[in-house]
Amino acid sequence: MTFMEENLELDLNNSDYIIEKCLNSENYSQNLYASLCNRKFLKNEKEWFCSWRHAGGIVAGLRRKKFLEEYVDWYCSGMFSDKFENYINEGEITEEISNDLLKLGWTHEKIG
What we know:
Layout: H1 8-13, H2 16-24, H3 26-36, E1 39-43, E2 46-48, H4 52-62, H5 95-103, E3 107-110
Antiparallel strand pairs: 1-2, 1-3
């Protein structure tokens, strides 16, 4: 039997509905990026967290089927939340993102 740690990135990459939302909505993609920043995620008593750069890379990877993006396309995008409608700051999480992650079995807590 192989032991595998809980991994939110893997779950996101295997989630057709989250990938579809990212491919069809820049706002959803930015909200997912911002939600992954400054938070720890919990599933089956295991913790998962990532850096802002890694969060940008995750979102760029989810959108790669349709767009040629890199982590820098999302990195620090929350700093522009006042310039783009529906963008949120790093560390914030929308109800939609929270519910989508809960469907994957993940809860979250803000770090710091």
